[in-house]
Amino acid sequence: MRSGCTVKAAYYESKGPAKDVLRIGERPTPEPAPNEVRVRIRLSAVNPSDTKARGGYRGNVAMPFPVVVPHQDGAGVIDKVGEGVDPARVGERVWVYEANLGRPSGTAAEFTTVPAHKAVPLPKGVPFEAGACMGIPAMTAHRCVFADGPVAGKTVLVQGGAGAVGYYAVQMAKLGRARVIATVSRDEQAARAREAGADAVINYRTEDVAARMKAITGAEPSVDRVIEVAFGVNVRTDAALLKPNGVIATYASDAVHEPQIPFWPMLAKDLTVRFVLVYVMPRQAHDEAAAFVTDALARGLLKHQVHRVFAFDEIVAAHEATEAMKNVGKVLVQIDRGPE
Fold first, then answer.
1. Are 125 and 299 in contact (CB under 8 A)?
2. What is the CATH superfamily name and number for domain 6-133+304-334?
3. What is the pTM of this model?
4. How far does CA 271 lie from the centroid of its chain?
5. Nearest to 220, CA basis, from 207, 234, 239, 197
């Protein structure tokens, strides 16, 4: 903190390319309101939604606030609490989610404030690096995997099994005792999907996904749930692979913004499409995801993939690395180098 009045933060005052609009400077020190906590951020995570919000994705160029400090997720230590929060939480190691949701100040700063329930205790021995990887991707994965009931004994297809969400979805489905098949587009991703626990991996660029699924499972159709990162591209394949009463849980469709639905084939199987957007999930869904993640972290059951930890002053490069979409693993920004 600077003289108790300002903190070092990344921010933007207009939307556009990171190199044009993203700056680092001094911002007023945030103070926790009632039922909030203030967190000294150690590591901040860059999610695709962070770069899309800053870049004006799909024409969304209106600024929600005059100045925005970006990033939804991070990890650090609570240093101050607002009225209504147990003072004993001061000094607690936490992972933070949705810090920037409807608020001008995210985790790309030395300090940020969040509602107390969005600062989740980080289990003893779990590094801040792991905590910063949670939030949006892990909570999205949990919702996709479990929103429609247990997956024990079911076959789950994770499209994009090495992505930020897919990597955790594979692990969570396996923790739920499902058989998991993951799709990837290159060898490096295949290795990561297997590392996450996938029972089988399909390279969708070199293999016919439907034919490989039949060979792997010995059945057609064979899938109970699909976790989908590219809904518009894959919906017809997903519909063909799913058993009657199956579910597609989709959280993205970047390549095809306005997907066409194969209505009659999907109707014939009474399929469900669940659209998952973590930012509008019910509070109960957030709490269930946080509880699952915390338990898994405490028991050492989750693996994490980090592409690179950038220095704070390299935040433009961190955004550009996230947008490049060529990396396997999470992009993190080191805000503070205090002890674990």
1. no
2. Medium-chain alcohol dehydrogenases, catalytic domain (3.90.180.10)
3. 0.95
4. 26
5. 239
